[in-house]
Amino acid sequence: MREYTYKWNPEEYNEESEVLKITKSSYNLFCWCPMKYKFNYIDGLKQDTSPAMIKGSEVHNAREDFFNEFDITKAENMSHTELLDYCVGLHPVDDNSEIYRTLSTFEADRFIKAKMDDKLLDYLPVINEVMLDAELEIDRFQNSKYPLRRNYTVHLQGIIDRMYRDNGIYVPIELKTGLWKEWKKTGIRREMSFYKMLFDLASDEQLEEIGLDPNAEITHWGWYYPESNHLHIEKIKTASINSTKKGIARLIHSYEFNDWEAKYFWKTCPNCSYYNICDKALAESFL
After folding, report:
1. DSSP assignment, residue 71?
2. What's the pLDDT band for 267 if we cut at 50, 70, 90?
3. Is residue 172 classed as helix, strand or coil in its secondary structure?
4. β-pair partners for 152
5. Which tens digit of pLDDT belongs to each residue from 79-100?
6. Interacting residues of 5 by C-beta distance below 8 A, sequence separation 6+
7. Closest CA to 109 of 85, 80, 88
8. How does the average pLDDT of the chain come out, rounded?
C-alpha cells in the first residue's frame, strides 16, 4: 500500500505520492463539521478530552478485555446467576458499574441462548478491536454535487469493535456509550458502511492473518447501546454505503478547493474545543 497522511496535498498527487488517510473517526468529524476536521487533522490542534470521551474509552477497553478473558469452558456449566456474577467479575471497578452490569446481563443471556442453540463456538467474536487497512478508488464524479479534478486513491483505516459469525456470515456490531436516539441511525450506518468497505477491500492475506475467511460475506450489521439496552441488527443498507462514498468525495473536494465549511449548532458548539477560534461560532454568538 502507498504511504498516507492527513496533511495531504491533492496538487502533488500522482501514482507514487502519499494518499489521503481516512479513518472512521476522521470521516465522522468531517461530516459533523468540516472546519472542526481542518482544525484537528490538518492544523494539528487537538480536541479537549471530555468526560464522555473518557467514559467511551473506558467502556470500550473493558469490553475488549472481557472477551479476551472470557473462558467458555469455565462458563459452560454455570447457572444463570453464576454466569452473571462471572461476567460482572470480568469488568473493572470504576465509575461505569451500571453499564458493566447491563453488559454482563446481556452477555449472560446471550451465552445461555448460544448454549441452548448449540452455538457456543460462535459466542465469542471473530474480531475484537482489530484494525484493518484498505485502499479505495474514488471516481471524480462519485458525488455529482462536488465533482473532483481527477480520480483518486484514498487509504481507509479503522478498528472494528466486534464482529461475530452467524450461520456462515459475519456481522459487525458497534458498541456505543450514551443513550440511543432514532436520529442516530444515519451516523451509525455511516460507520457500519465504513467497516463494510474495509472488510471488502482488505487483502486476503490481511484477513487470513487475523483469522477471518476472505470468502465469507458481511450481509448484516448492527449496534448496541447498553445504557438504553438497545440492540439493533439489520440487513446492510446499500444506500448508506453509496452515501459514505459520496461523503468521501466531498472530503477530497474540500482538500482540492481548501473549502472547510463551519457548521454551527447552538447546543453543541459552545462546548467545542475550537469555539474561540471559529469565525462562524463567534459570529453566531453575537446574533
Report:
1. -
2. confident
3. strand
4. 138
5. 999 999 999 999 999 999 999 9
6. 18, 19, 20, 21
7. 80
8. 94
The DSSP H or E segment spanning 55 is helix 51-69
Beta bridge partners of 225: 230
Residues in a beta bridge with 137: 153
- CA–CA separation, 262 and 34 (whole Å): 6
pLDDT digits (tens, 9 = 90+) for 125-139: 999 999 999 999 999
The four Cα atoms 124, 194, 191, 206 give a dihedral, to 10 degrees, of 30
Q: Where are the domains of the chain?
A: 4-49+125-257, 71-122
DSSP H or E segment with residue 95? none
DSSP for 191-247, please give it: HHHHHHHHHHHS-HHHHHHTT--TT--B-EEEEEETTTTEEEEEE--HHHHHHHHHH
Residues in the chain, overall count: 287
Sign of dihedral through CA atoms 32, 38, 41, 45? negative
Q: What's the grid cell of residue 123? A: 459466542
Res 286 pLDDT > 70: no
What pLDDT score does 279 carry?
87
Q: Which amino acid, 103? A: L
Q: Considering only CA atoms, which of 221, 231, 225 is closest in space to residue 170?
A: 221
pTM of the model: 0.92
- Amino acid occupying residue 50: S
> Cell numbers 454466569 label which residue?
83
Model confidence over 140-192: pLDDT tens digits?
999 999 999 999 999 999 999 999 999 889 999 999 999 999 999 999 999 99
